[in-house]
Amino acid sequence: MSANYPFKDYTYMRKILILLIITLSTGSLFSQPQPKMTLSDKIKLVDADENYQKEYWDAAYTLYRDLHVKYPEHSVISYKAGKVAYRLKKYDEALTFLTKAAEKKPKNAKDLELWLGQAQHKEGLLDEALKNYEFYRGTLKGKAQTSDIVNDYILQENQAKKLMSTPVNVTITNLGEAINSEFIESNPSVTADGKTLIFTTCRPGNTGGLKDPINGLYFEDIWMSERDTVTGEWQDAENIKGALNTKEHDASCCISADGNVIYIYKSVNGGDIYYSKKRKNGEWRTPEVVKGKVNSTYFETSASVTVDKKKLFFISEKPGKGAMGNGDLWMATKVGSYEYEEPVNLGPLVNTIDDEVCVFVHSDGNTLIYSSNGKNSIGGFDLFKTEYKNGKWTAPVNLGYPINTIGDEKQFSMTADGKKAYITSHRDDTKGEFDIYEIDLTNYVVPDPDGTNQGSTGLTSGAISIFKGKVLDGKEGTPIETVVKITDDKGKVWDEMETSESGDFLIVLEGDITYTINVKQEGYQAYEEKIFIPKTPGKTETIVKAIFLEDAQ
Fold it and tell me: How far apart are CA 510 and CA 543, in angstroms?
């Protein structure tokens, strides 16, 4: 049996039976005037229909397309070819087929205008799409007029027209050959200082050099690039060093603000979240599963962790209190070393009955950017912002056009200063199916066409002050794994951070405050120092400190 045509091998009796069904059935699809179709082509059409029902889109598309070449005026074939082309994201071909079908309107294609509207939307024909949606809704009866999916499409159409007529002030740049290739790049994540970028790609040079037998693509690996400190350009990306990647699929969720931990998605146990820590030599450890209550037998993915690693935001399809169905946004609080307690669903104001698929938490700990294909998108998956204010999350706001397009924008990451962001998207200059783009947010203002935005006008809630450094042996200069305790002048403990294997630490603090830094480590003298952390409106202040511990007397 052919892999492309799973239902191709018919016996003689099966062919005769199908022919009898086609010939004798009243109300047949072929009752309308049409070119005479041969017996073998009638069998091929049934074959295509079976492939479509089984969701073998490629096989169905090949058969429908071949039949369309022979019978270009056959409106049923045009209609079916258009639907399967749309499912394969061949939107220009879908529009051609469905427009052809609409010229004659086959009797059994009652949802033709719905499909045609979707294809027109994907090709940017917003007014035409809206007319077809309105026409289709007018054919519905009773409750269907208000409950059918077309109502969401109409809302998306109006949202698209509104946001695309008032584009936000950003510059969007393809990161070029240093990062992107003719293959798929996705899941960008950047450190707080904007100097390290990781992403997922399925290209040659992956670990093992193998391809997925299911889709024919190279197995995904996580790659990394560093920004050149002189030119500011991203250096050529490389497959990440160490034991993080395997011979199968490995996808990045996020890199921690300090660049010392990477959270990873692995397709095990229904889909779980792992983490890998960086060694002193810069290589990455074998990933370990995130402990506690985050992972379940359901699909968990797209995690993002706060600067202090105490809160983990992630996507899960698990049921539970507040769950809306499909992928939802959840939050879990740390209770041990990479162990998190029972997660909390972010609720119906943020989550929808549709899919939320990706999440990013900013360094301020209160701003989430996530992707959803809900009714407030302008088509496909869009990026939205919500803020935690007064004990609750604000109503999500669409980031606007051209950050969002009528295609899919699924992943997002941003520097601590809120000046640069990174997304996955397919645009006119995309090298492969999806590329990674950099967004200059210097002049960005959150769109508020309806005057309902409850959050800040930018993508961050205010100025950020970063305190980072290393703890080192005062004699040898070697890094020390220890705990750095930070308190303010009122005695409030802001954090007790564990340093990495390289002695690194990083924390986001409130500015215009003097803090006390304490380090106590066995075999060394106790260290204490006061340090003032400044705050400048609209700017990220970064204080770097090397802490040297002296041997105990």
Answer: 12
- As annotated, the residues of the chain forming the CATH 1.25.40.10 domain(s) are 12-148
Asked whether residue 435 carries a pLDDT value surpassing 80, the answer given is yes
pLDDT in tens, 386-421: 999 999 999 999 999 999 999 899 899 999 888 899
| DSSP 8-state symbol, 211 | B
The secondary element (H helix, E strand) that includes residue 86 is helix 75-87
d(CA 110, CA 136): 8
What are the residues whose beta carbons fall under 8 Å from the beta carbon of 68, sequence distance 6 or more?
74, 77, 78, 81, 97
Considering the domain delimited by 171-440, tell me its CATH architecture: 6 Propeller (2.120)
Half-sphere exposure of 116 (CA within 13 A, CB side): 25
Please say whether the structural domain 464-549 has been given the CATH code 3.30.200.20.
Answer: no
pLDDT of residue 109 exceeding 90: yes
Its pTM stands at 0.86
* Distance separating alpha carbons of residues 77 and 71, to the nearest angstrom: 8
- The CATH 2.120.10.30 domain(s) of the chain lie at 171-440
Are the C-beta atoms of residues 340 and 312 closer than 8 Å to each other? Answer: yes
Three-point CA angle 215, 220, 222, nearest 5°? 165
User: 266: how many CB neighbours lie within 10 A of its CB?
Assistant: 19
CATH superfamily of this structure's domain 12-148:
Tetratricopeptide repeat domain (1.25.40.10)
